[in-house]
Amino acid sequence: MNEEVVLYRTRGGRLRAVQPHCPHLGAHLGHGGTVKGEHLICPFHRFAFATDGTCTATGYGTQPPRISLTALPLHEVNDIVFIGYEQDGSAPAWQIPDLSGPPQRPYCRPVHHTFTLAGHPQEVCENAVDSGHLAALHGFTVLQPPENDLVYHDTWFTYTMRVGRRVPLLGEVHLTPRIHVYGVSGIRADLPLPAGLGRLRMWVLPIATGPWHIEIRLPISAALPALRFLPPALRAPVGERLARLLARLYKPLLKWDIGSDVPIWNHKRYIDPPRLARGDGPIGTYRKWARQFLSAPSGTPNSSQGEERLHRSSRPDQERLLNDQDHP
């Protein structure tokens, strides 16, 4: 956690993630480093590193030393790159599945927003099944709660819900998002727009950066119907620009929605067991399922005790930590 990573793609399209410092003399490969063909070039002495991490050349034509970059496990899926590993440094025991389905009109390049706060990734993902807060905090009318359509798989679950929200000048608008929750790694919401105007795809990705420190990253993209009234050569570039405009227009609303949760996450305490009431949603079921993704505290043999980490961890200076940041 709280480590820098250098992520690069070669000319041939191969994506790699490595630890940031050159093993020769420690230059940071992310500050001045370049990609030349299939090699990552160090900015300090122009040492070249192949995609397997090995050093293949120096900047002055001599025999390269036997050094290698340290590669990190990565997984590129659903237009997002995930980098992570187990506590012992090994590759993750599971990966987010590719749920893109059959080819459809492509989503645009996403726009982003980031929140920084005190919290734990599980508490963010738990929000996906917390039906009660949708009305109490966000003002939605829950017409079909998650538990009516919830299907658990080994490392992810999905459901479709129906909600209503009053919109100025439009009155009550009904929305039917399809939700996917991947372990404690993130939430994806696919939202068809009314009248066939297109689709929005929103991610809520809580990234642990330290003990009880997280960044929540919000990529938002859109897809529009085929622009058949345009000449074929213009459809893709115009569609991309219009879709990104739609994503930018929706971004303040998603930022406002998630931003309503952020100060609560930043100051709340994990209660175990929770004192649940009718209408809360399947929070208890989600917590039992989520235990498989949590490591046990040091010295405990049973991984199911990993949930203890949520309420035994010390919390940082919350007022100092809370922050949000826009990205183009």
TrEMBL record:
It comes from the Bacteria. Keywords: 2Fe-2S, Iron, Iron-sulfur, Lipid degradation, Lipid metabolism, Metal-binding, Oxidoreductase, Steroid metabolism. One of its GO terms (biological process) is cholesterol metabolic process. GO terms for molecular function: 2 iron, 2 sulfur cluster binding; metal ion binding; monooxygenase activity; oxidoreductase activity, acting on paired donors, with incorporation or reduction of molecular oxygen. The keyword Hydrolase does not apply. Its cofactor is Fe cation. PROSITE patterns: RIESKE (PS51296). Pfam families: KshA_C (PF19298), Rieske (PF00355). Residues 1-83 form the Rieske domain. Residues 306-328 have a biased composition (Basic and acidic residues). Residues 295-328 are annotated as: Disordered. Residues 295-305 have a biased composition (Polar residues). PANTHER family: 3-KETOSTEROID-9-ALPHA-MONOOXYGENASE, OXYGENASE COMPONENT, IRON-SULFUR DOMAIN CONTAINING PROTEIN. Homotrimer. The two-component system 3-ketosteroid-9-alpha-monooxygenase is composed of an oxygenase component KshA and a reductase component KshB. This is Rieske-type oxygenase. It comes from Nocardiopsis mwathae.
